[in-house]
Amino acid sequence: MMDKGDSAGRRSTSSTSGAKRPSERPGQPGGRRDTNRRERTKALSDAALALFLERGIEAVTIEDITSKAGVAKGSFYRYFDDKQALVEALFAPVATQVIAAFDESIAKLKAARSRAAAFASYEAIGEALGAVILHHGDVVLLYLQECRAPAEGARAPARLLADVVAEKAIEHTRLAREHGLLRAFPAEVSTLTVIGAAERILFSVLNGDFKGEPLEVPGQLITLIFDGLRAPDLRKPEG
Amino acid sequence: MMDKGDSAGRRSTSSTSGAKRPSERPGQPGGRRDTNRRERTKALSDAALALFLERGIEAVTIEDITSKAGVAKGSFYRYFDDKQALVEALFAPVATQVIAAFDESIAKLKAARSRAAAFASYEAIGEALGAVILHHGDVVLLYLQECRAPAEGARAPARLLADVVAEKAIEHTRLAREHGLLRAFPAEVSTLTVIGAAERILFSVLNGDFKGEPLEVPGQLITLIFDGLRAPDLRKPEG
Amino acid sequence: MMDKGDSAGRRSTSSTSGAKRPSERPGQPGGRRDTNRRERTKALSDAALALFLERGIEAVTIEDITSKAGVAKGSFYRYFDDKQALVEALFAPVATQVIAAFDESIAKLKAARSRAAAFASYEAIGEALGAVILHHGDVVLLYLQECRAPAEGARAPARLLADVVAEKAIEHTRLAREHGLLRAFPAEVSTLTVIGAAERILFSVLNGDFKGEPLEVPGQLITLIFDGLRAPDLRKPEG
Amino acid sequence: MMDKGDSAGRRSTSSTSGAKRPSERPGQPGGRRDTNRRERTKALSDAALALFLERGIEAVTIEDITSKAGVAKGSFYRYFDDKQALVEALFAPVATQVIAAFDESIAKLKAARSRAAAFASYEAIGEALGAVILHHGDVVLLYLQECRAPAEGARAPARLLADVVAEKAIEHTRLAREHGLLRAFPAEVSTLTVIGAAERILFSVLNGDFKGEPLEVPGQLITLIFDGLRAPDLRKPEG
DNA sequence: TATGAATGAGACTTCATTCAT
DNA sequence: AATGAATGAAGTCTCATTCAT
After folding, report:
1. Do C200 and D212 touch (CB under 8 A)?
2. C9 in a domain, yes or no?
3. Is residue D131 domain-shared with residue D180, that is, in the same domain?
4. Which nucleotides of E are covered by protein (CB under 7 A)?
5. HSE of A207, CA atoms in CB hemisphere, 13 A
């Protein structure tokens, strides 16, 4: 009755959240109806997330989701337009926070007048991203799992986020270098190196494949990367 | 949009290539029939590869492939059992060469009696992987695109290869460290760092997203990574 | 034209009816939804039965059935798992009643202490089978039409029922003979004779091929079977 | 490219044999080419017969047949027009002999001037049918298996033969009664009784289901049919 | 609102038949 | 003549989406 195939980008005008808001909904926010609505949305999102991680976004059907969430199939459409909308809703908080973290850090870097101030922006973004990973580990894992897919269909949000992140991260690096925090190195290469390394390890950790001690990874990664990337005059003497 | 009756791992007994070979075929090898067969297989593989890159493996239908390849739908099944078999056939040469490269390099490392000999094994594997990237760029890109997906359905081969590569690479790193080529660092972390960084940049390059000069990337990456990873006594004085 | 992935006996665990019942359905029994469900199931069964009789089970497609029943193709699968399940559902009431008739008659025979009592069991089973034929003539015809087919695919239920019936009938005969109702004759031969004769005539009658007066057949058949065909003056004296 | 569905009756003009004879074939009858041709035809027929018995005519594909016969798929069509033609060819000798047996017996009956002569016609037909069963057991089994199917598609020949046999047998009975060989009984009922009984037992015997001693069956059957099943002490005096 | 039944497009796969080799 | 590759119609089954209850 309706076409299955979605074309990428159709959602350029939709709100960030991807959640469906009936134009007129009864009950005031916080009331009984609103609470029910939140609960249903959460049940659907949770079920979907678990299934997406298990089988990949494409392979999961609407019925899989509703049945796992314990709702009727038709109810899905009261909460989300379709699978892509759900994926967008899933990614929304993460995307918002990650993008905000970069934007703020970029702003700080631009405003920084000292190397110390510039360095602080790194600490800030690290903290912000750490918090995201901590509170939205599953969504981050889903992102890592799907972010290289072509921006088509329900997986589009993952890829689009990845592209935005890369772009902002590169700008961030450029600014950091201008502040003398990094060696004179092409920003694109060094940024992708850091992103690639961090994401790969994070993937293993969130995955359960990682054999080492996760809590030590950030420090190790920083040592590893920064010993290579750090500007000469910041290099610590070995030993 | 979804693959129907696939379960991961069902292909454990199939040959490496994934291609379908009638046990006895008429016409001698090199004859007309044989040539036709090769041409068809190639046409299907090429069409499939292009579509997979464009839309992702899951979103491409058999009919998309045959129609792009200019053959009848039913003909697909003379050459491949199903989409997963085609994907396996696509990955087979790359998987073979990559795995062989690691295995050989690992063997060399084990046999190495000097640091120079050990270092040579790195050059060898670099060359081998470079050759694979050069000759099978599209397949490598497909791998990068799909290799984090759960090992379900047609995309399974990508993920399975990724897991094997990670495992072998970690062993490789462990050996390299035993030969004093690398700093005393957890092998898992440093390996995933290198893989993650290299794959992320490669993805951008093969993708067309990369803005810099691709030919300079390997050198840059080595500098970047090795300046961080290199054992202290190999560290060159900055300047 | 051919059934695809069926293997005989796959349904050993399914319920007797073969009908698909969602575990929890909305609407109380007897409500609108329940009524609709019954109507649909009936429409599909009726359409299928008519087509099966016309063309044979194997030659009828799901689409033939749904289109004749006036429902969408996909709806079929809400009511039956596949064609074989529908066939099972079609046969279920007949199979149940026939088997029950035999079991009861066998039980009566076992308990019978007089020849009169034993004879009554014959009357009982005759009546029961007559009722089945009267109320489920078309299903019985379908049974007669398909019951010699190998127990493969959608036709399996017919053959399996036939085998059960033969077995029970033979036991029945054996008991009847022990009560002195029948000549000392191998039970298998005499049973198959009666079944074969009865089924063949029934087939003609239900078919419309039969030229005679159907209502007289049962009596004629009994006379014939019990007294034989020999013309009076050729009758050998009993030894 | 061509339609699959056959419509019943399309073969009304074809020759009895169903075998394909190229209008101009090289080699004289009995020569090398003719011998090869016979061998191939036999291989195909044998393979088909075995598969038909195992799975039913409808479920067997052309490729199943050729592959079991050890010939190429395309070769099938050099020997038979399609599956139905093969089935016709399979039944042809049996049909011919059975029909001839009835026709001859009917002719004899018509010419018979004594009851002894009339009785001899029964012996003749019994012998003829026995010979057919002996030499073409598998084909007879296939006939029994498929002869109640609607006369559609490849199974049509079985059903058509069944209808002819019934018709001729009824005429035969009518004549026999006129000669005083049988009781005054509706010919249709008594004929179908005999056919039904005989076929049912034969089916069990050829099938392998029969537990008794096959060689004794004909005699038992004759006794049974002619003398009836009634136990001696219940026998009503003939009125 | 919630439910799950209905719809029909469309994906996968098979197979009779034709045809180049 | 024999082979088996090619074709595409047709069949099975799934699933996103809509809609009556």
Report:
1. no
2. no
3. yes
4. 1-21
5. 20
Higher pLDDT, B113 or A137: A137
A198 and A226 fall within a common domain? yes
Selecting from A152, A196, A235 the residue whose C-beta is nearest the C-beta of B59 gives A152
Closest nucleotide (C1' vs CA) to A85 is F16
Q: What pLDDT is recorded for position B180?
A: 81
Long-range Cβ contact pairs of A24-31 (< 8 A, separation 24 or more): none
Contact of B217 with chain A, judged by CB distance below 8 Å, is answered with yes
Q: Are residues C47 and C128 in the same domain?
A: no
Quick check: D6 pLDDT over 50?
Answer: no
Same-domain check for residues A166 and A216? yes
- Host domain of residue A207: 84-234
Residues C102 and C219 in one domain: yes
Are residues B133 and B67 both part of a single domain? no
**Which residues 166-205 of chain B have a CB within 8 Å of chain A?**
166, 185-186, 188-190, 192-201, 203-204
The answer as to whether D17 is a domain residue is no
pTM listed for this prediction: 0.90
Q: How far apart are CA A41 and CA A49, in angstroms?
A: 12
What is the predicted pLDDT for the residue at D35?
Answer: 83
Nearest chain D residue (CA) to C186: D212
pLDDT of residue D30 exceeding 70, the answer is no
Which one of B200, B203, B211, B223 would you mutate to disrupt binding with A, by most A Cβ within 10 Å of its Cβ?
A: B200
* A25 falls within a domain: no
Same-domain check for residues C128 and C114: yes
CB within 8 Å of B13: residues ≥ 6 apart: none
Residue D118 to residue D174: CA distance in whole angstroms: 12
Side-chain-side CA neighbours of A178 within 13 Å: the count stands at 12
What distance in Å separates the CA atoms of residue D53 and residue C149, rounded to the nearest whole number? 9
pLDDT at D227: 79
How many whole angstroms separate alpha carbon D13 and alpha carbon B71?
39
Mean pLDDT, chain C, whole residue set: 86
- Provide DSSP, B9-30: TTTTTS-SS-----SS-SS-TT
* pLDDT tens by residue, B48-64: 999 999 999 999 999 99
Nearest CA in chain B to A148: B145
CATH number at residue B167: 1.10.357
Give every residue of chain B whose pLDDT is below 70, as ranges: 1-30, 228-239
Q: Is residue D225 less than 8 Å (CB to CB) from chain C?
A: yes
Q: How many domains does chain B have?
A: 2
CB C41 within 8 A of CB C97: no
The residue from C59, C79, C99 where one domain ends is C79
| Kind and range of the H or E run holding D173 | helix D156-178
Query: What is the rounded CA–CA span in Å between residue A58 and residue A156?
Result: 11
Please tell me the distance in Å from D189's CA to the nearest CA on chain C: 7
Smallest CA–C1' distance to E1, residue: A75
Same domain, C57 and C145: no
* Distance between B140 CA and the closest CA of chain A, angstroms: 13
The mean pLDDT of C124-128, rounded to a whole number, is: 93
Put simply, whether B228 touches A (Cβ < 8 Å) is: yes
- In B26-85, the residues whose Cβ lies within 8 Å of chain A are 53-56, 58-59
B92 CA vs F9 C1’ separation (Å): 34
Question: Is A158's pLDDT higher than 50?
Answer: yes
Amino acid B224: pLDDT:
85
D192 chain-C contacts, CB cut-off 8 A: 197, 200-201, 204
Q: Chain C: residue nearest D217 by CA?
A: C189
SS3 content of chain A, % helix, strand, coil (to 5): 70, 0, 30
Residue C8 lies in a domain: no
Residue C117, CB-side half-sphere exposure with 13 Å CA sphere: 12
Establish if B214 touches chain A: CB-CB under 8 angstroms.
Answer: no
Chain B hits for A163, CB-CB cut-off 8 Å, are 209
Domain boundary among A21, A45, A79: A79
Q: Which CATH number fits the domain that encloses residue C162?
A: 1.10.357.10
